[in-house]
Amino acid sequence: MRDRGLDCEDSRSDVRSTNDGRQSGFRHARPPLGGLRMADVADARAYPPDLLSLAADFTWRSGPDLRVEEASPLDVACDPSVIQLLRGARLDRLAQRTLYPAQGEALGALLGRIAPLRDIALSFVQRDGSVVNFTLTGSPVDDGGYVGVGKVWSGRPFDEQHRGELVELLERAEANRNREMRLREEADVLLASLRTLIRPAPLADKCSDLFNLFSRLLRFEQALVVRRRTRDELLSVVATDPALTGLKWPAGDVINAALMGEALVVQDLSALKEWRDLPEAIRGRFRNALVAPLTIGNEAAMLVALHGQPGFFEPYQLALMQRLSLIATQAFEVDEQKNVLINTAKLATLGELMTVIAHEISQPLSVIAMAVKNAKLAIEAMNERENTVGSAEQTIVVAKLDRIHDQALRAGEIVSAIRTLAHPDRRTLGLRPVAVTEIMDNIRNLTEGSLRNRGIQLICNAPPYCRALKANPVSLQQVFLNLVVNARDAIAEYSKRRGEATRGEIRIDVYDDGVSDRLVVEVQDSGGGIPPDVMNRIFDAFFTLKEVGHGSGLGLAICRTLMTDMGGSISAYNRDKGAVFRLEIPTYVEDPAG
């Protein structure tokens, strides 16, 4: 007897049926699943327990030819169309009929290897246009068939329902993996960069090592550091290619933005207004750039990474560029600290030298003043003996001697001021009432001829009534003279850059409101102004915007020292077409008790 869903070996055992439907005296080749209680299924040794532990809607089994011999629902809510589709169908044929080829390929590959099936999704279109979706899970049995369970899905096809989520998960996993690798590489580069910073080496070698390390992340072709050298001139001071070191860079919108602290990506250098003014070594080789602000001491500079392909750099790389800029800033800061120590030693040596020079000059000046005085006395004595008033020639000689005597005395006062600078405890000595108009007259007499020859006009304005200042006249005159000379040089350089004949004006304006305890003097020029990125450095010792060999960088530093010693202040800003230096000087108040 052959019962549905059972294969009996009649030659080996007899088949007997009992009243309760149980069968005895035979051995199962494949125990049936349909219609059995879970306890009965669990007793069947041919069914792996992991299949029975799955949440399932139906059971199925196939013969060696992969034809589904049995498909039975486990739940009354199971879609009958699934059972109808499976019964009598071959699994390999079902793989060819699936709605989505990927499903069929996955099932066919497993059937070809007689491999276990695990949640294989299948979708089929019915004759009425509806879609049947279910999954098959099964294990191979000894005779080559399968036994398993299945789950029915409702709504959209399984593949369509979960494909987006699966793709998103895969993409997220890939992105996380790439991000992890990138972060690990960045950490390695940053650690190596820190080792480079603490290693004693020249600044150029440190920067070269930093560039080589970050080239693994940024993939740039060349990198360089650009900093300001003169008022309108920027130079590449460090570069991966020695041919790019020392190149002059023009000022422009992009460079000015970087110098003011903005990081940016230049997708195409040829789109810049200053493209034509860029060095040929840049225009001919590079089109794409990453630019990040850099600080060298208190001076704004910029770090530039270059590539020959337009649009090569992506905006996200700016963060890496800024990290490189921060590390490079630390390298330059260490180098600047060394320079500060060197400059401090220079100032100490200069102070000692000033003291020696002041001492050596004071003696010849005293001799000159004494000789002039003796000459005047001799002329007067000669006129008394001859009982004459003196000829016109003698009058001219006496006037010249008076002028020599006055200048010798003035030189002596300058020497005294130098001594005061060398000895801080004497800086406040010599403060007395000073008329600012007198100082301006002296400055006009000293500089007007030189300014006129260069096409520069000096204009001095002061109110009719102006209170006296409490200052050292020699120090105050030195401050005014330094500012006028600097203004003259700035106008000359500005005219030269524009290819014009030197012309301009210097204004000294005095403001006295008659109420406050300070008087304001502004010295303004038409020399193009001070670059904003170096405005906070112009009073530093040894800092200059003049060309190499044309300035010591001490003039404005001395002016600030002299103004501070007199209880005043000095500041700078730009106005119109030039720079303005604002002096605030205490006014003289007479002591009633005195």
UniProtKB/TrEMBL annotation:
InterPro entries: GAF-like_dom_sf (IPR029016), HATPase_C_sf (IPR036890), HATPase_dom (IPR003594), His_kinase_dom (IPR005467), HisK_dim/P_dom (IPR003661), HisK_dim/P_sf (IPR036097), Sig_transdc_His_kin-like_C (IPR004358). SUPFAM superfamilies: ATPase domain of HSP90 chaperone/DNA topoisomerase II/histidine kinase (SSF55874), GAF domain-like (SSF55781), Homodimeric domain of signal transducing histidine kinase (SSF47384). CDD domains: HisKA. One of its GO terms (molecular function) is phosphorelay sensor kinase activity. Keywords: ATP-binding, Kinase, Nucleotide-binding, Phosphoprotein, Transferase, Two-component regulatory system. It is an enzyme of class 2 (transferase). Its EC number is 2.7.13.3. This is histidine kinase.
